[in-house]
């Protein structure tokens, strides 16, 4: 299913001319269901100051330039309330050509913290992933979220809790939108608990734990991460295809503290990929990887955050004409190394790896956000990357620059680029 450019233009025009467009646009009441319309459009620009690898390589970026720009999202969402305690949502991203949330929810006794949900929805294992995309603190989500987080999947979910705490259990299968094999995940289950011992306006302390366990589709897992830039065509850390795999299990911990206009948060995930014993020691070792981040955000204009179902909620500007200004910083780290190097048998041979050496990467991201009025957001980020990955090559492999071959045989290669990012966003 693809939406034409004219269809998307009509939708955007309807949102622009609608009154009070920040809230969803009320359309009609159909079958005792109050139907409304929401949308999100994001356009990104990345400039790459590459170091070793060409970050603008691959895909549509084979143009020799150091920059790339792209319509990142064009999300169109229909929502319904009713009849009774039922709610439903159908969302579609016209840019990515994929389904978003497509589900129905039944609130028990009308309680927003006690419900059943069926369909496609975000799985309960990452505070950042569960937060609204339009209010992300930085342009690219954290390395841990993009690498280990399980996003939208088909399944069923039950949540029970109150304003200060909650427990969520989910069973899921594949995504609603088909992808080329192997698909990211097979069937599995997820659990998340959240607790806010302090929860009042301008003063919130949140803790959370999560766990997901799922079958690896077609017995293959590949873990990799872009360097804090969604438009980068190259992953600086990459395990490659790990075959002979059975299940992937990820445990996560999260914390957040809000005091007035300041928000501090962090998440940690550790994943284990269990592999079958097929008699080959190098293909039978389980893989362990981990990633984490810590971030801080300051609303210069004084606004503070809310709290709902274990995630922060972002307010509207106190002064719509001047908008809400934010500055922030985030440190990310990921480790996909779980193996050792076996020395080559001759000077011209490549070294062997017992296990997996996917690489390590740290990034610093600093940024400024401007929420203008009720529907617009502008973001600027600067990302500094420090990565290293083992390269097992022979002198006859054929690198991009043959003069560098002897320096790149069987050693770790450091790659430390810098990236400038910008985003323009319109939502209603």
TrEMBL record:
Residues 1-23 form the signal peptide. Keywords: Signal. Gene3D superfamilies: Porin. The keyword Endoplasmic reticulum does not apply. This is Porin.
């Amino acid at each position: 299913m693809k939406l034409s450019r004219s269809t998307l233009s009509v939708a955007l025009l309807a949102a622009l001319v609608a009154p009070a467009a920040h809230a969803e646009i009320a359309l009609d009441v159909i079958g005792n269901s109050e139907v409304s319309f929401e949308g999100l459009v994001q356009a990104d620009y990345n400039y790459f100051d590459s170091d070793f690898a060409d970050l603008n390589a691959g895909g549509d970026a084979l143009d020799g330039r150091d920059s790339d720009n792209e319509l990142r999202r064009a999300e169109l969402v229909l929502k319904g309330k009713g009849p009774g305690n039922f709610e439903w949502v159908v969302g579609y991203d016209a840019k990515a050509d994929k389904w978003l949330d497509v589900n129905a929810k039944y609130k028990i006794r009308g309680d927003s913290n006690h419900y059943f949900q069926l369909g496609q929805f975000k799985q309960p294992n990452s505070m950042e992933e569960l937060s609204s995309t339009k209010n992300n603190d930085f342009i690219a989500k954290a390395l841990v979220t993009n690498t280990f987080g399980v996003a939208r999947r088909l399944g069923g979910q039950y949540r029970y809790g109150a304003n200060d705490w909650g427990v969520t259990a989910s069973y899921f299968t594949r995504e609603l939108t088909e992808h080329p094999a192997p698909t990211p995940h097979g069937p599995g289950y997820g659990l998340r608990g959240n607790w806010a011992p302090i929860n009042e306006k301008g003063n919130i302390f949140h803790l959370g734990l999560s766990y997901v366990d799922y079958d690896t589709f077609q017995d293959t897992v590949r873990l990799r991460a872009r360097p804090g830039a969604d438009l980068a065509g190259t992953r600086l850390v990459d395990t490659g295809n790990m075959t002979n795999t059975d299940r992937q299990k990820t445990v996560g911990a999260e914390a957040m503290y809000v005091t007035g206009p300041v928000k501090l948060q962090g998440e940690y995930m550790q994943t284990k990929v269990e592999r079958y014993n097929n008699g080959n020691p190098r293909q039978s070792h389980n893989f362990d990887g981990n990633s984490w981040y810590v971030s801080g955000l300051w609303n210069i204009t004084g606004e503070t955050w809310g709290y709902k179902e274990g995630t922060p909620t972002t307010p509207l500007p106190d002064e719509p004409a001047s908008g809400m200004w934010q500055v922030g910083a985030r440190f990310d780290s990921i480790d996909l190394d779980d193996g050792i190097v076996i020395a080559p048998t001759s000077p011209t041979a490549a070294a062997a790896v017992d296990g997996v050496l996917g690489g390590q990467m740290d990034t610093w991201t600093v940024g400024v956000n401007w929420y203008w009025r009720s529907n617009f957001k502008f973001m600027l980020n600067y990302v500094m990357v420090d990565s290293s990955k083992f390269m097992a090559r022979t002198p006859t492999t054929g690198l991009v620059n043959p003069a560098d071959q002897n320096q790149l045989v069987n050693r770790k290669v450091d790659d430390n680029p810098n990236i400038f990012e910008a985003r323009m966003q319109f939502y209603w």
